Predict the structure of Uracil phosphoribosyltransferase.
Amino acid sequence: MKTLVVDHPLVAHKLTTLRDERTDSPTFRRLTDELVTLLAYEATRDVRVTDVTVSTPVAPAHGVRLARPVPLVVPILRAGLGMLDGMTRLLPTAEVGFLGMIRDEGTLKAQTYATRLPEDLSGRQCYVLDPMLATGGTLAAAIELLFARGAEDVTALCLLAAPEGLAHLEQVFAGSGNPVRVVTASLDERLNEHGYIVPGLGDAGDRLYGVV
């Protein structure tokens, strides 16, 4: 498994405002959108392309286009929805699937309550959107589901990650032969006794959409 912490002043600036408890939901949503586009630039560095030649007004030019099958973007509901526009802005030809998962606050284990994904993901590159990589249980379950349907490789985009979550993913996918990558804006200190990232930014879903 590979982990990339995106080190960029604009990323750090936007993340600082996201962390601030005084930031309201409309601003939080806008900054999340902008931040994800910056993360997506790095996350798609290995997206598959094919060589093409086009005609400019002057002469033929060699270039590339995204290969088929096109990538699949999978936000984990509900907080992952706040990352979708920022990702598809950079990757507009990608298809979008949806995965509804919730963490049991008692066991901290992930439970799936909804899926809207192709049954066959053979040869597909998948990008999973999940704002917080905390214990890693939800993200690991989502990635396992994608690989079970034939996904070729999976990249997860997370606003924040905790060392415990990364360690869990390493444990689950070590030696599996399935390529997994995590791209995040920050690797934070730790988890607290409630499984929240410290210093973190609170509950991403509540800060995006309010408490419902």
